Amino acid sequence: MSRPALSAVAPLPAPTGAEPLVEVRDVVKHFPVRRGVFFGREHGSVHAVDGVSLEILRGEALGLVGESGCGKSTLARLVTRLLEPTSGTIVYEGTDITTWSRRRLRPLRRDVQMIFQDPYSSLNPRRTVGAIIGEPLRIRHVGTKATRRRRVRELMERVGLNPEHYNRYPHEFSGGQRQRIGIARALITTPKLIVADEPVSALDVSIQAQILNLLKDLQSEFELTYLFIAHDLNVVRHVSDRVAVMYLGRIVELSPVDDLYAKPVHPYTEALLSAVPVPETKARERVRGRIVLGGDVPSPAAPPPGCRFHPRCRYATDVCRTVEPPLVPRREGHVAAFHHPLNVGAR
Amino acid sequence: MALLEIEDLRVHFNTRDGVVRAVDGVSLTLDRHETLGIVGESGSGKSVTALTVMGLTRLPNAVVEGRVLLDGVDLLALPLHELRRIRGSRVAMVFQDPMSSLHPLYKVGWQIVEAIRAHGDVPKDVARRRAVQALADVGIPSPAERMDSYPHELSGGMRQRAMIAMALVLDPDVLIADEPTTALDVTVQAQILDVIRRLQAERGAAVALITHDLGVVAETADQLAVMYAGRVVERGPLATVLDAPEHPYTWGLLQSIPRLEAGPQRLQPIAGTPPSLIHVPSGCSFHPRCPYAFALCPEIVPPLVLSQPGHDVACHLPPAKRQAIGRRLRSEDDASGGLAAG
Amino acid sequence: MSVHVETEASRRPSPGGPPGGLAAAQRALAGVLGSSMLRYVVRRILWGIVLLFVVSGLTFLIFYAFPAADPAALRAGRQATPQLIEQIRHSLGLDKPVYDQYWLYMKGLVLHFDLGYSYENNVSVTSQILSRLPATIALTAGAFVVWMLVGIPVGILSAIKRRSVVDRTTMGASLLAISAPVYWLGLIALLLFSQDIGELHFLPGAGSYTPLTSDPTQWFFSLLMPWFVLAAAFAAFYARMVRGNLIDVLGEDYIRTARAKGLSERRVILRHGLRAALTPVVTMAGLDLGVLLGGAILTETVFNIPGVGRYAYDSIINSDLPAIQGTVLFGAFFIIVANIVVDVLYAFLDPRVRY
Question: Could you list the residue range(s) of the whole structural domain that residue C210 is in?
């Protein structure tokens, strides 16, 4: 199937004239599947991320939404260079870090931190909370033991933990508190970019709200940039300035948050939004108007030809089956990869 | 008389750290053709309630009190061998994670056939045909071939459909679904809820849908019960509870949920953390986190009493005051596009 | 083992084709003979052969570099003159460079299955091993049956009645059985039960082994003690393993589902619980069997059973290099085969594992 080279994303009008902190261009990550008798010829591969171009602007919160298998977690790990891309470039603050070795990347780790989804498994159960939070400083030999300790306690208080609990172990904390520990650990090196991979998915609803508020407060206080990944559209809406929607390793739509939620261009976004259950009594009527996507998400090892979404798309035509739609600006700041925006209505 | 009546259920577990009061006086009813949504966060006791109805909490360290009446028969008093006859055939349960809830080493069809043959002398080929039909009923394509699939060969949505098929194959009177969509993607979630709705309409079963997601409940439930720390704090028809909630916890829940329509303002989380079930706060267990708590609240457990027609609330605040606060919050939220905006 | 990636094709069944059971059988057969499984087996066999080469080379090298005694001198006997020793050395080919010796050896092995001739008595090593094989097989197979029949039910019982008196007793006893060295256990058994030196003399003593074909009754009774002695530690180990696995499995969600379906507790434990708990046990048993078939040296020595293990022991004492190499290769062969069989078996037992 012919795949036209993805045009570079037209520079998006930055919200505040900010320049990009991280730029990702045509990044591809394939995980090979090996077969064969001895050393295994590459039989095929899982196209986890298949040509993504993105800019994360300084000071913004970019939300990344998609369902399981869309590649958002892989993309997160590519942005933080925990993985090396199969092809494409990753540029951080103007420097190309795509092929840097781990050693070269080490100073970068101070600036780019991650918060993980599962507060139960992302903390070492054998270490005290103080040690966990202070470790990034300790391994860089920043300050003395006493100054580090003080800083950890300050940060603990800032994220809403009791500094007296410095010597406690993770299992003595609740899920929400553990997530705060994870946040403190990410903040201790005063990073510039925080990549949060589903940070509230494992938490109770009432705790989610606390953590989301905390993340927003911290963003303005510490002048952070966020890449915020979630599958819950409500949550993403709340935290982000811009939102990118991913499907099968590609970005299908990217736009400022209000615009996306009010007037989605891509049918997948449309379906996602209509699928979100809303706690209102009129919800039942909404159900009748719901767009229920047929079928399941295809496997990332064998993405459909042409537009990846065409097997499940109700607007699909012949061109969709053969030609991959490029990510093209539709409105002010809003790009989408779709052949028939008119069908959805040039709203 | 309702089909299923849970009367003052209490379930306590004796553990090394103390007595866990998982369920502490829960009363609920369920009728045919009706869906009861049970909402609560972790530790609210909703899952333990469901498991107790099925008799799955008969453990050496568990103390179970109260009654669970199915058509007048107390399930809690039944001897195990009779309870087994009811499990699966009259009361069936669907669990949260279909990947871990289906046996990984047996084919899906085999597991459904096993459920059928456990409740009657059904010849294998007849059972097999019924299993295929059950898979077709839940919307699984090529059901005859799917019978020979292992759970890990199916996608998440398919697995959950298979679980529902297995639960409904014997046409039970009551279906309990414990967080059936929590582990699924949102588009798949919509499909699964659709399946449950449709099958209920076709067969007239009573459905208890347990979830932490108010949105899910809003789409599927007729009646709603809100649980906190092992007790029911509010219950009634869906519309009433969502449009005119009268318990501070329900208010807190509705306000703390991020919304699609609302703008990105600050969320109003509920202060504090969910209580430990070993050291449950005295009196009203919500009082440490309640912005409206007053002197009476830590002293006496508020009883679940009628407030509006069909609407029961367990709160010490006078009904008039609750309704006023509820209205005020609703109008505030209306202005910002949240709560019960139509 | 490569990751199994579900392609679209593998998830959706092909349209048409024979119905129901026949299609299932077709699929199963295709799965067995299917290219990926076959490729895997071929791959394992080829690597196995490479491994055998490496093992033979290593043993060869070890004995060449660190001889315990000069085999030519041993052969020559007491009245050895230097010329005689030199003569013998030459006839045995020991004066050739090591790679020449190795080459000759491997040529004989691969072309004729010839493991060389024993320095001790100039008898073909291959024939020696083969003649001793029945005894080892008898000992191993019998012990296997005993330890499985004892260990697994004990494990199940302990798991079901966790923390009860029964459980604590069995686990305590198993700890003893595992800690006791097999030769000590063997000697104690002889002291207690054997007809010649034992207190309660009702079982044949050491050295009383007779082949099955000549005297079945004597064969059986002479092996009873060795079976139980050899099986003791294994039974204990397997009981603990089954207990642990079953306890873990019984806490899984699918057990809860099985109960929710209204199945009898018996069925839940045996059909659902045990099925999942036993898979690793079966593969472990296969491996243990493979190791033992190479010779249960200690047991065979204590009870003087003329098996491969005993032969290995004797040949070590006598620095009989060809014999030692022969038994080592022999043991390695069984272990490699057992490994391959066990891995393939695992794929049948656990459908999630695919090659």
Answer: 128-349
